[in-house]
Structures are given as C-alpha cells and as structure tokens.
UniProtKB/TrEMBL annotation, chain A:
Keywords: Acyltransferase, Transferase. It comes from the Eukaryota. The lineage of its organism: Eukaryota, Metazoa, Chordata, Craniata, Vertebrata. InterPro entries: Acyl_CoA_acyltransferase, Diverse_Substrate_AcTransf, GNAT_dom. This is Spermidine/spermine N1-acetyltransferase family member 2b. One of its GO terms (biological process) is polyamine metabolic process. Belongs to the acetyltransferase family. One of its GO terms (molecular function) is N-acetyltransferase activity. It holds the Pfam family Acetyltransf_1. The gene is sat2b. CDD domains: NAT_SF (cd04301).
TrEMBL record, chain B:
The gene is SAT1. PANTHER family: DIAMINE ACETYLTRANSFERASE 1 (PTHR10545:SF36), DIAMINE N-ACETYLTRANSFERASE (PTHR10545). Pathway: Amine and polyamine degradation; putrescine degradation; N-acetylputrescine from putrescine: step 1/1. This is Diamine acetyltransferase 1. CDD domains: NAT_SF (cd04301). The keyword Cytoplasm applies. InterPro entries: Acyl_CoA_acyltransferase, Diverse_Substrate_AcTransf, GNAT_dom. Its EC number is 2.3.1.57.
Amino acid sequence: MHFKVRAAAKEDCKDISRMIMELAVYENMADQVKTSHEDLERDGFSPNPFYECLIAEVPDEHKTKDGYTVVGYALYFYTYSTWKGRSVYMEDLYVMPDFRGKGIGTGLMAKVAQVGVEKQCVRLQLSVLEWNKPSLDFYIAKGAEDLTAKEGWHFLRFHGQTLDTLAKEAPKD
Amino acid sequence: MSNFILRKAEPKDVSDILRLIKELAKFEKMEEQVILTEKELLEDGFGDHPFYHCVVAEVPEDKQSSDGYTVVGFAMYYFTYDPWIGKLLYLEDFYVMKEFRGYGIGSDILKVLSETAVKTRCSSMHFIVAEWNKSSIEFYKRRGASDLSDEEGWRLYAIDKDDLLKISAKKR
C-alpha cells in the first residue's frame, strides 16, 4: 500500500488529536487525555513549538471506513544530554490498527531518525511499557537498548498537588 | 550558611556549568562519557534556539569553595510534551557541590524549578534517577515524587547515532 510521511501542518491537529484519543481508548485511559486539538495547535505551531510531528497519509482510495486518510503519527521533541549534547526524544509513535504491517511505523520512525541526524542529534530516546512486547520487539530490532536494564534509570515525577506545594515554597527574589 | 543566590545562568557561566556536569558524572561513575564542550554548551544554551535552560547557585566570594569557585550548584532543564496533558518541565541535571550540601541549596533549586513549571503551564516535572542512587531517590520521594518505572512499568530506551543512520537510510 502506498503511503506518504510528511511534517504535520496546523490543520492536521484534529487528526492527531483523534489518533491520540484512539490510542488512549485502546489503553483504557481515555479519561486521562486532557489536550484538545486547539492545545496541540497552540503548542506545536507557535513561534516556539514544544513538539514536532510527522504524519502518515494514504491515498483517498485507501481511506479508513470513517473517511480518514491520515492513519499514523510520530510526535517528538529535542532534549539535551549534559554528557553528549543534542538528542531527539520520540514521545509517541502510532499507526491505526487496520494499517499496520505495511511499513508505516518504520517509515515514520525513519523520518524522525533523519530529522534527528540533520539536527546533529547524537541519539534518539523513547520509553516503552515493560509489558508491551510487540513495541519492545519493534524498537530492539532497530537497535534500541534498554537503559533501564543496563544503567538502572527510573522515571520519576512531581505532579499536580506535589508540584503546586513545592512551587508555593519557592524563595522570593 | 543561608547566604547564596539562585539566578538564571549566563553565557559566562558555561565553564562552571561544564565543571559541575563533570563532577556529577564522576559521582555517577560515568565521567568518561562527558563529551560535551564549553563551545557546544554556549551554542546550545545561549544561541537562537536554546536546547536547555539553566539555573545556577552562587555564594559570595568570602564563602568560595576550597578550589576558589563561587558557582556551587546548577540545574539544567527543558520543556517536553505529553500528548495527553501537554507541556512538561524536564529536569536533566541537578547538582550541588559536596561541601555546600545541607544548607537548603538543592531544596531551593527544586522549588524555583517547580515555580517555573507552574508559571509556564506545565502539568508535571519529570526526571530520571539511577536506581542505586538511594540518597537522591530519598531526597525526591520525601518531597512527593512518584516512581513511574515502578508504578507503571516505564523503561528508557536509546538508539545511538550509528543505528539512527541505518534506520534513516533504508529506502521503502
């Protein structure tokens, strides 16, 4: 099946929002999605974007039963390692279930890798849930290394109330 | 010693920042992995498109370190994005020189960063810690941090430059 990978435009945010929700529904976490397509437009298409996005598009004759031609996306941003410098972090990679097995995921990821190399990034990072075997296999086949296993890295966060509490205690200038 | 200030890093601070980065890497037993240079730090933090932001802790001259330094701590952060909740503040590095610990410098840095996160509409502040680094994990958990790797099973993966080149070169 022929498909095209291109940089997302502001008008694609409705499709990106749709696919973000599809993935959340599949993971039984739809109530956790707080971003709207307007948020995505503001955060990705202003002079100082917080992310970049690539989308995968199929020709009209292969559109989904609901009439969509945008069938996958990869959302990424640039990070910085104090050891190695510029890196690219791939936050989301998603292809609609009916369009899997056709190289679209690989195509999206290849384009993220290309953008990263062009921007002089020394590596690409991502995170995967330990039970997600198909995704783990997909990334390991492309050379991904488990740094949690190798170096013991854990993800931590300050969220919601704990973040607000810390913020209120900040010293005044 | 309550006599310290926290301020935004300036271009003149890059050599102190690199010094502190190397000290932290040494503590994490990874000193030889630091290949970043002052020139790159300058370009990447203070050029047209900053890849990071930095806060430094400074003491007065009469309180300088045994080696004569007045910049004694730093935190490097940048903004990331979660498609479900939007902007996040990501804490990349956070370090206070050993002889200046226990005075609340680290605590204040964390509070200033939390305030920055809230002011810039971030839902969360994320970071990674090595699981053997018990004192750091304690420091964060005491202040309410949760471990997403333990709680939800997230694992960090990386693909290095050589493999990135291979992936990007393959034709469909």
